[in-house]
Design goal:
35% of the residues lie in helices and 27% in strands. It is an alpha+beta fold. The strands form 5 sheets. Strands 1, 2, 7, 8, 9, 10 and 19 form a 7-stranded mixed β-sheet that branches. It has a 6-stranded antiparallel barrel with strand order 12-15-14-13-16-17. A 3-stranded antiparallel β-sheet has the order 3-6-5.
Length: 409
């Protein structure tokens, strides 16, 4: 089967790329390994699809080559994303800068993309797993188990390794390596972290507002605030997700990875000590239960007391208790892995790709977009913004190239 442009992968970046290429007049075919396109997109934002963020910038991304990220976001920013979706009929709804479709349903975003693909005549083939790409003549030949395809331009939009059941199995990295690209080591990101401490089993289900501080080999590397969820395996929740990629890299490098939870981030250690001393004096004739009540979740404060040395119903040393509350330990021994990760950190080395259109510097005519690239954002619509930006830049460029070559032939 032939097409001007073949997009490998029907996720967010792939659909955006296909639409932009088809709008340039190119004949476009999407090859998707899953039974349907857009499956992972349906699950984003707890089914609500936080598709961009009003606060946009390179500071919200991790990469070995952050200048590339800055240049891409300059070429295609959040306003461009809003305009792209407005053309598809999606009205934005902002909640503290997080942008959702007005329907608050991811299905609306997926359907709007699908309807536009149909309107533009983009062909879609599912259950196709491309195993090889090689140059042939003035274009490329793509091979799968069942069929061979040919095209003038290829857009790699296969996704990473996160949430394989939703479509990403890491095959895109092998395709990129086959074209000569270096892959920055890939680790799970935006996922929970496993802790060594046994106390987490007794804290499963507890939610607490806290600031998480990530240390690698004793050095602070990151910190985030929000609701932390304690689980039998360790820690989860958005603040944990934000540091999980860096934590995974530390573990990969066999470094010591520790997280500390500050349950009173707006109170200094000294102020907390004074507060607890005053509380101790106030309740000196009362039971330990009275002293504990209202400080933290009941399960959590009891664990804090034990860690601080409380025995036989007696108060622990107040300074030790304050220290535990300000620096509750989680010695990280692993992450929850790719199956539970929302995205991957790492990917195709950005130095080998053009920031203007995401075209491969090793193999002109091949474009690499989305999660395959070495860039991952924090929670808040940043990874979808990356998908739209890279997909639209690549699709528009590839479409123009095909249109121009048609005119000259």
């Amino acid at each position: 089967m032939k097409a001007d442009i073949i997009v490998i992968g029907g996720g967010a970046s792939g659909m955006a790329a296909a639409i932009c290429a088809a709008r340039q007049g190119a004949d476009v075919l999407i090859l998707e390994r899953m039974p349907r396109i857009g499956k992972k997109l349906l699950a984003t934002g707890n089914g609500r699809c936080n598709y961009t963020n009003e606060a946009m910038g390179v500071q919200y991304y991790h990469s070995e080559t952050r200048q590339f990220v800055a240049e891409v976001l300059e070429e295609f920013n959040a306003e461009d994303t809003l305009a792209f979706f407005a053309d598809l009929g999606i009205l934005p709804k902002s909640n503290q800068g997080y942008v959702y479709p007005n329907s608050m349903q991811a299905a609306s975003v997926v359907d709007s993309l699908r309807f536009e693909l149909e309107r533009l005549g983009v062909k879609v083939m599912v259950d196709i797993d491309v195993s090889r790409i090689h140059p042939k003549g003035k274009g490329f030949q793509l091979e799968s188990k069942s069929e061979t395809f040919s095209c003038r331009r290829v857009i790699l939009a296969c996704g990473g390794r996160a949430s394989e059941k939703l479509g990403s199995n890491g095959s895109g990295y092998q395709l990129a390596k086959g074209l000569g690209h270096r892959i920055v080591p890939v680790v799970p990101a935006l996922t929970g972290l496993k802790a060594k401490e046994a106390v987490y089993k007794s804290l499963a289900g507890v939610r607490v507002e806290a600031e998480i501080v990530l240390h690698i080999d004793g050095e602070e590397r990151d910190r985030h605030r929000g609701e932390v969820q304690l689980a039998d395996y360790g820690i989860s929740g958005i603040p944990v997700f934000q540091v999980s990629g860096r934590a995974a890299y530390g573990l990969n490098n066999r470094q010591r990875v520790e997280c500390f939870l500050d349950f009173f981030p707006d109170t200094t250690y000294d102020a907390l000590v004074r507060f607890l001393e005053k509380r101790k004096e106030h309740f000196k004739s009362s039971s330990l239960e009275v002293f504990e009540t209202g400080l933290l979740n009941r399960k959590l404060i009891q664990v804090c007391m034990k860690l601080a040395g409380s025995e036989k119903g007696r108060l622990p040393n107040i300074k030790k208790l304050a220290s535990v509350m300000k620096k509750f330990p989680a010695s990280i021994v692993g992450s929850r892995g790719f199956d539970f990760a929302q995205v991957c950190a790492g990917g195709v080395d950005l130095k080998e790709v053009s920031s203007k259109n995401c075209e491969s510097k090793h193999q002109p005519g091949v474009y690499i977009v989305g999660e395959l690239l070495d860039a991952d954002g924090i929670c808040g619509g940043y990874n979808l913004q990356w998908a739209w930006a890279t997909g639209c830049l690549a699709g528009t460029s590839a479409g123009k190239e095909c249109h121009d070559s048609h005119r000259t032939n």
